[in-house]
Amino acid sequence: MSLICAISNEVPEVPVLSPISGAIFEKRLIEKYIQENGVDPISGKEMTIEELIEIKTPPVLKPKPPSATSIPAILKMMQDEWDALMLHAFTQRQQLQTARQELSHALYQHDAACRVIARLNKEVTAAREALATLKPQAGITTIQQTVVQQPIVATEATGTAAQPMEQAGMSAEVIQKLQDKATILTQERKKKGKSVPDELVSAEKLRGFMNLASHPGLHSASVPGILALDINSNDNSKILTGGNDKNATIFNKDTEQVVTILKGHTKKVTKVIYHPDDNTVITASPDCTIRVWNVPTSQTTILLRCHDGPVTGLSLHPTGDYVLSTSQDKYWSFSDIRTGRLLTKIQDTADRGLTAAQFHPDGLIFGTGTDDAQVRIWDLKEQSNVANFPGHVGEISSISFSENGYYLATAAANDSCVKLWDLRKLKNFKTIQLEDGYEVKDLCFDQSGTYLAIAGTDIRIYLCKQWTELKVFNDHTAMSTGVRFGKHAQWLASTSMDRTLKLYGIE
Questions:
Q1: How far is CA 195 from CA 199, 234, 450, 470, 482, in A?
Q2: pLDDT in tens, 63-102
Q3: pTM over cut 0.85
Q4: Can you spell out the DSSP letters for 344-412?
Q5: Which regions of the chain are under pLDDT 50?
Q6: 393: exposed, middle or buried (C-beta count within 10 Å: 0-12, 13-18, 19+)?
């Protein structure tokens, strides 16, 4: 049954229902009627447009006109539809081509933007490094800055290139100076006896050490890795580091600012010493040179070329006037850092490359490590090998004398242990066995000889005599390369291949 409009007697396109008469109307007709008359056309009663009720019905499909039912008309309609389809396809192809061009252009812009971002990131990194370098130098006068910026080659040409590298020999005066210093140090050690300083941190407090600060901005991010560490024993705020970036950096832990960056080595800086009395530091590198630096001017004052191979060990004599160095060239050297003279140069007894060096606290003997796992003890005055400590596997990576003068700690590359030697009995009395695969890179006793620190896969602190483990630090994300105690072991510093200097203590 179809709906019929009460006015037109035709099927309405939009049917509505009158609630007054109940009749069906075409919406446009009844709305026009109500606007003109204001009443229902059937009942004659008053009614408004708002009262109409729209009826929801399926859309009405009008039949095709008779002209569209013949075969020629159908063919004509199909031809028209085909033409319209072809025009639409042509338009779509044009739009597709336009979209491809726009996408290609967008991809090109994206690639260019990525290149710009990469370049800007590199510039930002360089700017941050430059800022870290410039910050602490704000107090340096313009005259000093001018001196620092002068080519270091000129300094070498006037002050170091002419220095003779022939052996000057161990004169009676030098030997007497070494003996006098050793006598004084031995007497001081006897006076101290077995007592430890009152300020020395206790083992219990040391167990409570935690990471207090981490400083990643000391060396270049493009060549990451800090390889060497030392602390100024008289001014514990000053820390010296050597890096893969060929630079040495002096950092003030109290102000948390870089004091200066020392540039001059042509290869990475692997050994560093902060002179305890002078404003001087000493650095060594695989570039076969040892440099003595003046800190205020950041200039090389002495350039020692006493080796033909990479310098692997560096140790300052207790007098503060001489430096011991070892090298892969199989020689150890003893040089005067005041005059730049090479006093003596001795070949290893077994003709092996040397990998480590350390003076005994008295300065009359010293230890060297070799690339075939041997530790040798030498008499400096006689320039002779007086003892050998075998037992390690792999090249010796670090050696350290205890301040009490009795103990020597050694480590090698491949045996995951630290050996303790009694210098009075010349024998190994203790071996600290570490986990398989543990690499030891550095060893350090504190100034009282109470604690031993190990740096490598992690940082570990041991209590001497009992040789018990007190604390393990796992804060570095890469291999630890250096560890040093602050004064009275009140704090601890470590460096790593992760480019950070970390400080530990009690919060």
A1: 12, 21, 10, 21, 28
A2: 666 666 788 888 888 898 998 999 999 889 999 999 999 9
A3: no
A4: EEEE-TT---EEEEEE-TTSSEEEEEETTS-EEEEETTTTEEEEEE----SSEEEEEE-TTSSEEEEEE
A5: 135-164
A6: exposed
